[in-house]
Amino acid sequence: MIAAVRPEFRADVLVFPAEDPVFGGGACRVGPCPRPARGHGLCQGHHLRWVGAGRPELDEFAATTDPRWRRQRPNMKCRVLGCGFGAARGGLCQLHHQRWDRAGSPDPDDWAAPWAALRPPAPGAACRIGHCQLWPQAALPFCHSHANTWKVNGRPDVEVFARRFDEITTTEEVTIRLGGLGPQLKLEIQYALQCRRDQPSTKTLPAVVMALVRLLAATDTVSLLDRDEHEWRTQIGRPAPRDGGPRCWFTPAARSATSPTLAAGRPSSTETSGRCAASGSPATSS
After folding, report:
1. 195 vs 272: which has the higher pLDDT
2. What is the pLDDT of residue 149?
3. Higher-confidence residue: 39 or 182?
4. What is the 8-class DSSP label of residue 175?
């Protein structure tokens, strides 16, 4: 039975690059951003940034905006020359802001703030967040901004907290997780995905597949063959159009489950000839 599914589809977690011709949404038009495009050719994060910037000309925005995610971008440094602490108020670190306030809040551009008056941290000391080069705040392991976030989150283990800021190379937008399905149902969905790959007539985004997977996981279903196609389309999920995407993808998935390979537990003569059931497109078995 499992021989009907090729190795690349035989995992609990399937990840598809943004450029995948069937399961990808196309790459974000911002430089090296790995996330799939959504509105206006931008990933969700860059689209929100573009909207927040007043919707400037797209090509110029894509060429000039920072491709990094917000949590990978550096925090603001104190504006006083030579100070490596993070900005806390008005572009100044806490210590320089206190001195500026005691000086009568002069124009920051005209205010002389000799760095030598502050004690720097030990040589080489930096915030424990990998990409952050700001000096740690007092005796804490993080800079001012990251220390505040750490405190708000209940002061978790330092290393665990720091790993939350590691660069994310794979997002849920490009991931299909099948671990919540039973063995037979998982195999049928894997086979349906394989058939859709072999018949690239339309895109099927992982988010649509995951919506169906969650609907199936909430039932006591053992196999897609437990009910006929009409029963599935009328009973699963919420009334159309709210679950329209999963319902539309369910039809080819249910039909592929009738494959002789899956039903009989071994390749049939037509399957071994390299055809994907219900799609008429090439497939290979291992």
Report:
1. 195
2. 93
3. 182
4. E
